[in-house]
Request: fold
Amino acid sequence: MTTAHTKTTVEIVTALTAGLTAVQWSGEAAFQSVRRFDSDDLERAFRELLLYQQRIALVIPLGETFESEARGAQLLIRRVRPFGLLLSDRVLGKREESVFGGATTPGAYGLLEAALPAVVGQIIDNPNGVRSDPTSAQPLTLVDAEHQLPARAAVLLELECRGGWYEAPLNLGPVR
Reply:
């Protein structure tokens, strides 16, 4: 029988969302909205991002991979779960401020700098904790041609969340 020593994807999404919700910029909440979306619902997420919120963070699970290692009669299976965090500061008509910030706004890169300490490192305590490792950050431009709104700057922060494992016996009989 396989034994789980791991956290669920929902627990990781909850930890990332809580971390982003707690981020501050100039003494106030950095994000007016922190939402979670699955990768199949990104069109709706982008539409909401473009239309409604000033500063927003989206938490998006991007799948899952497994790393397996045989140790004697046991198979250890580690989970690696990539996430995308889409961070955006809406400053209409001022592209440079929406990217780099200004006197009254952090900009997409300012939000990235504020968010990083809240979402990297150990995000769920042991036992069976979860560590979040940043892998890349890329600028994006989001456009809504339907509503003819100005383009919106964003940064996509990609993370790999690692932690926990499964133990599966290898000695139950022949493998076919």
Notes: The longest strand covers residues 152-169. The chain has a mean pLDDT of 88. Residues 8-66+80-162 form a domain with the STM4215-like fold (CATH 3.30.2000). The radius of gyration is 19 Å.
